[in-house]
Amino acid sequence: MTDPALTSQLQDLGLTTYQSQAYVAAVEAGQARPNDLVELSDVPQGRIYDVLADLESMGLVELRSGSRGKVVMAPRPETVLEDLRERRVTALNSQIESVTEGLAELYDETATDQGEDGYVTMARRRETAVRHIERAIKRAECWLVVAVPADLYERIADEVTDAIERGVTVRLLISGVAEPPDLTYPADVPVRFRSAADTVVAADRRYGIYGSGHPRATNRSYLITQEATLVHLLQNFVQTVWETSAEVQDAATLPRRYLDPRRLIVDLRDELDEGRQFTVSVDGHWTDSQAAVALDGRIVDYEISGPVETDFGIAPPTIASLTVDTGDGRVTVGGWRATVEDVAASSLRLGRD
């Protein structure tokens, strides 16, 4: 009769009941014929050869042919169980990687499909927030604002660079240290600095992460959302903080992408007033029919106004629109929730005429 405690532990390692009983019996016997192990292990006669073949494939026993038939040998358990452990760990790691990849693809597809009706959740672990930040940056297609502590930027610098190379307009705010850190930034990204700031990453209107930097907070929670309106609010919030922070690096390369006319006008108002010519590619929808539209043309006029004259880089205007000459006529282009303009823009790509 085999030791029930040992057989139970072997079953916890993944062996079946019969495999566990036969292996313990083989170790106890040292060397035995299969029929002898039937009596020692209580494994049925009709199953013993299959069970021993399984144990041999695991490397736990050796089957040798002798003058009186097969003989079962049990090598030192320390050696064979260590080999078994390494194989099981390798196999488990491979399974975890495969499952993780499959679930990540499923998660990404689900999250992408959620669109404007996306989720809102809270995360308490920084590593969880960092994973979402990396994912948000990778999904950015048009406009990305990144306000992070210096140590976190060093972790996501490659993702930011990749976004810039995809043509995404990036604005970067570094914080968390007393003085601007000695870091290297991509040449095409404008960078600003302030010693203390909340952690905010907002990609287009699709993905937002917010973590408060309150000095009295002992544990930081992170809001994570794919709800379009909340991401839009985060975009405006961090843009205001960015505008009022110290400049570290300027960048003004074209073509440049924007989410709406407001930021384009704020950036280029002086040049537009001087008569500089810009082209723009617009993606969005007609405000009357809601049908999708993509158009190209030349900016011939703009309007930006509010109840009082102010800095519309910080304060939101009531109206911010472009007039675009497409060659077939002129259309007015507003932001993503425009109702009075001809087109509500979801993204704009700027170029020189």
From TrEMBL:
Q: Which PANTHER family match?
A: HTH-TYPE TRANSCRIPTIONAL REGULATOR TRMBL2
Superkingdom classification of source:
Archaea
- According to the entry, what is the taxonomic lineage of the organism? Archaea, Methanobacteriati, Methanobacteriota, Stenosarchaea group, Halobacteria
Database matches in Gene3D superfamilies:
Winged helix-like DNA-binding domain superfamily/Winged helix DNA-binding domain (1.10.10.10)
Residues in domain Transcription regulator TrmB N-terminal? 10-70
User: Where does the Transcription regulator TrmB C-terminal domain start and stop, copy by copy?
Assistant: 120-351
Q: Under which name does UniProt file this protein? A: TrmB family transcriptional regulator
Give the protein family: Belongs to the transcriptional regulator TrmB family.
